[in-house]
Amino acid sequence: MPTIYQTLRTDHDRHRDLLSKLARTQGDSADRRKLWQTFYFDVSAHAAAEELSFYSKLISESEGQPEGRHSVAEHHELEEMIQGLHEMEFRSPGWLARFKSLKGRYEHHIEEEGEDIFGEAKEVIGADPNGQIAAEFVMLKTQERSKVDEKAGQAIED
Ligand SMILES: [Fe+2]
Ligand SMILES: [Fe+2]
Hints:
Elements: H1 4-22, H2 30-59, H3 65-86, H4 95-125, H5 132-157
One fe (ii) ion binds next to helix 2, helix 3 and helix 4.
C-alpha cells in the first residue's frame, strides 16, 4: 500500500496533466468539456478527502496547525474559483483567461503541499509506513465522489 504522501502526489500529477491539457483547449469543444468534468469532480473529491483524512490529523497537533490552516484556507479560495468556472459557459471568451489564473493558483497549491507541507507533516503525524492514512483517504474520496455524482444527477433532473 502506498503512503498518503505517494497517494496524494499521484493525484497531484494527474491534476497537473489535466490542467496542461485544458490550457490547450478552445471554445466549447468536446475536449474541454470532458477534461473539465474529469478535473472538476476529481479535484473536488480529492480536496474534501484530503481535509478529512490528512489535514484533520495535521491540525489536531499544535505544530501542524499553521500549515494545515493555511492549506485549508487555500482550498476554500480554490473551491470558489473552480465553482465560478464551472458555472461559466465553455464558449465564453473569458473562460481561458479565468482558467489560467485557476491553473496558476492550483499549481502553486500542490507545489506547496509537495514541497513544504508533506515534509513537515512527516515529522508531525509520521510517514504513514503502512498506508493507513492513504487507505482512509481512498475510502473518503470514493464517498465524496459518489456524493458529487448524486448532486450532478439531481442537477440534470432539475
Ligand atoms: Fe490540497
Ligand atoms: Fe492535494
